[in-house]
Write a structure and sequence with these properties.
Blueprint lengths: L1 E13 L3 E8 L3 E7 L17 E9 L5 E11 L1 H5 L1 H17 L7 H15 L4 H15 L20 E4 L4 E3 L1 H4 L6 E3 L1 H12 L12 H16 L16
Bound molecules: zinc ion.
Amino acid sequence: MKVSEAFLLHKIEYGEADYILSLFTKDFGKISGLAKHAKRSRKRFGGRLEPFVHLRVRFREKPGGIKFIEDSETIQVFSTIMQDVDLFMYGSFILENVGILLPEEDPNEKMFNLLVETLSALDSKKSPSSVILKFQLSALSLSGYEPNFDACVECKNLIEQEGFFSIQRGGIVCNECENNKSNGFRISNDFLLAQRDWMKRQQNFLNHELKDPLEYIKLLVKFTQYRTGKEIKSSKFLEELRND
Ligand SMILES: [Zn+2]
């Protein structure tokens, strides 16, 4: 029997009584498994198979790799996220990003810790857009998709003040190289300062006041979709938000 901390990414009903679960586990990465009789078993699963519950799960693996989720217990419930519509949307967006960025069965403990940290921050109602933006940058970095904000992707010169972003080239383009193309997304000096501090983990979520964090969040959604080839369905709610 294997044991790990975990979050539910999604569940599908299977037959009368079972669920197929996709879980992000701390020790084994993203896994899928069958939770037999999970709909009825209060004792083994209770109401715990929900998003935003930090779980400890036990599972066994049959030869051939099929996994059976045996039971779960609760470590922590992020109840504010569950009860607040906006936070619920932000939280769903975070979980979907994790699901998209991670391959199956590739342990990523730093990503797990980032998820706990991010949900904790959301649950305590810290400025959601800063929390989301920092999460996106960190998660892209931890999954090997990190955009390059340090040097121009064309001429390799270091970027000091500001520039433009090229989704296709995977990073920032200096003013000289952008020259007359003018279709790039403008990256401000404020954002570069925040990004550099966040990536070095010197600053907490609130030390940088960006002028329009939502525009950067949307840019990174497009970048994530382009790099992974997958749609982030929960990102649609971002269109209805204004910068907070
Ligand atoms: Zn350049």
